[in-house]
Amino acid sequence: MEVSHILSPLNDDQRNAVASPANNLLVLAGAGSGKTRVLVHRIAWLIQAENISPFAILAVTFTNKAAREMRGRIEEILGQPSSRMWVGTFHGLAHRLLRSHWREARLPQDFQILDADDQLRLIKRLLRSSNIDEERWPAKQCQWYINSQKDEGLRAKNVEHFEDEYTKTLLTIYKTYEDACERGGMIDFGEILLRAHELWLHNPEILEHYQKRFQFILVDEFQDTNSIQYAWLRVLAGNQNQMMVVGDDDQSIYGWRGAKIENIQKFNVDFPDADIVRLEQNYRSTSTILNAANKLISNNHSRLGKNLWTDGSEGEQISLYEAFNEQDEARFIVDRLQDWSNGGNHRSDSAILYRSNAQSRELEDALLRVGMPYVIYGGHRFYERLEIKNALAYLRLLVNRDDDTAIERIINIPTRGIGGRTIDMARSVARENNCSLWQACTKCINESILSSRATNALLAFMKLIDELDSASSNMELHQKAEHIIMQSGLIKHHEKEGGEKARSRIENLEELVTACGNFDDAELVAEEGKGIDLTAKDFLTAFLDQASLDSGDTQASENEDAVQLMTLHSAKGLEFNLVFLAGMEEGLFPHKMSMDNISGLEEERRLCYVGITRAKNKLYMSHAESRRLHGDVILCRPSRFINEIPQELVDEIRLKTTIRTAGSSKSKNSGSHLRVTGQIEVPQTELSLGQRVAHGKFGEGVVLNYEGQGNNARVQVNFDTSGSKWLVLSYAKLKPLS
């Protein structure tokens, strides 16, 4: 049969992988090297060149989208349906097994699959029925523990507690949960793989049947497999079947959710007859970008090793921008995007990548100011995020107790024993008396409409709001936000989720405090500049109005040409002509939580490698000399990753500016003086960023940011005693100091 069409579109290394006679094969596929092409052409080769039945092929990937793409491309090459082979995700294929062998898997025929929300609700119910204090043993933490044990292939009976009370309690909860699922005929997502693995182990005849059937096993994104996934594959492969795994140890970035880089690193140990083929020719990026990525990742140890190259153009140098602060960074990025768009390029072919979700807020503000459409890829806009909505609901109640929507949102967040029945009663009283929920709650308490327990819980909530209001009434806006977030219990509430999600939510809440510190409202600034005294409540109301307007601006529609914003983790597998890596600072990227151990730091470096290799033609990297966190201006050091890229590949596109501060690594409102060497002037004024100025009411401070020019310009000044203020120059009458 003519098979030249299978190999003809491939380069030499790709052909070696596709037509390899090896029993087992590890394909190290660098970024942009055509790994999916190799996988589908390998399947086509097996069927057409080696006369292997599609019935004998199993292809595994991680997402339904990837599985659909793989199946479609196979059918395109072969010119026939691919229905006889099994192509799917780990969970999809394992679920198919369990449906076929439900009895041998010790499941009812109509077993139900619990999604994450169903699983959490069941755990909460079990905690209550077992009289376990959910404050001490949060349901989300228990959920994370159970799922992580299943990812490791461990049931409660397999985990040793070593007489540790903490572990003992979690194991008791795990066992109670297992029993409840058995009784109800339910399995969660982690159970699908674990149960399918046990199906192999406990039923040798079934295992033998599938080992004889699936003689050729192909696995995509192998570096992302966890313990139970790899164990499932190894048992199925046995000693006879062929395994071809495709992956890139340099793009293993999901260790925080259970992926084991060791799986790909030890593949040729577990399969000693395996050949290794390296796909190093890149079809995506310029040689400058690839050389930067190669040099960066060479700082990681224990790599399997490869070096990306291209026969394409050298391309432009990587542009490095050292911003004065985060607003300057965002403004620079948006200016470059406007130039890009005005040059006839599609905005959708550009992306801003960042390490932490919280970084999007400043970037979103800058994009909104110029009216540039954008999309948060795989996520929500800043003011639409759950934790931000929760915090804003508390702040809204300080302004208006009759805000029913705010009460509905946080009356039982964090959990305070106010159940659905209590809330329904309050709603009923509100309807009957044509009043707000707050007034209805007051009536329920005063007239003893509820049980004593419900009354006490409701009273505690209302007292909390009053106390938060009273204690923060004279605070600056950012101080007020920080006080409410901490004293409401929101930080502890979201910490209970555990893992990367909890960290992201807390960082977003911290960024909300920063947003309050940087908040400016032109009308309010003008009023204050005229000498009109404004209350803290005025600024809070204006901030809440602005947050509502920002969240009300819908994201770009699906077909609209829009800039893509996303975390570096979300960017894996994507590519763009123009890429910005924002926030390249120590503690931010690499993240402070990953800097205290080698494995964490190396995963951060792999994440940077992924970010760099998303760029096809042009890459910008930026970092800020200072960032505002919790109302303080923090001095930042450039990321070590910048220094790991050869200088000849980098173009510093502006004269460096350097912040100096006397005797401290950070500047707080209470006193350290910032000074900038290197001029960033406020256009058509006598001021520049970093310059010290004096104000008749607020005293001395330093200029941090500006918008506009001349007398109509607004400048942000960090005053030594009054904190950060945005002022209109025509009203402020700032006096420049030396």
CATH architecture of the largest domain: 3-Layer(aba) Sandwich
What is the CATH level 1 assignment of the largest domain?
A: Alpha Beta
CATH superfamily of the largest domain: P-loop containing nucleotide triphosphate hydrolases
Could you say what the CATH topology of the largest domain is called? Rossmann fold
Beta fraction? 15-25%
Shape: flat
Structural class: alpha/beta
Q: Major sheet: order of its strands?
A: 11-12-10-13-14-9-17
The end-to-end span amounts to 84 Å
Number of helices: 30
Indicate the radius of gyration in whole angstroms: 29 Å
Mean pLDDT value: 88
Number of E-state strands: 25
Total domains: 5
Binned, the helix content reads: 40-55%
- Low-confidence residue ranges: 655-678
Give the biggest beta sheet: 7 strands, parallel
What does this structure look like?
By secondary structure, the protein is an alpha/beta fold. The chain folds into five domains: 4-101 and 194-281, P-loop containing nucleotide triphosphate hydrolases (Rossmann fold); 112-184, Arc Repressor Mutant, subunit A (Orthogonal Bundle); 284-378 and 562-656, P-loop containing nucleotide triphosphate hydrolases (Rossmann fold); 383-518, PCRA, domain 4, CATH 1.10.486.10; 657-738, no CATH class. It has 30 helices and 25 strands. A seven-stranded parallel β-sheet has the order 11-12-10-13-14-9-17. It has a six-stranded parallel β-sheet with strand order 3-2-6-7-1-8. A five-stranded antiparallel β-sheet has the order 24-23-22-21-25. Strand 6 (216-219), helix 11 and strand 7 form a beta-alpha-beta unit. The N and C termini lie far apart (84 Å). Residues 655-678 have low confidence and may be disordered.
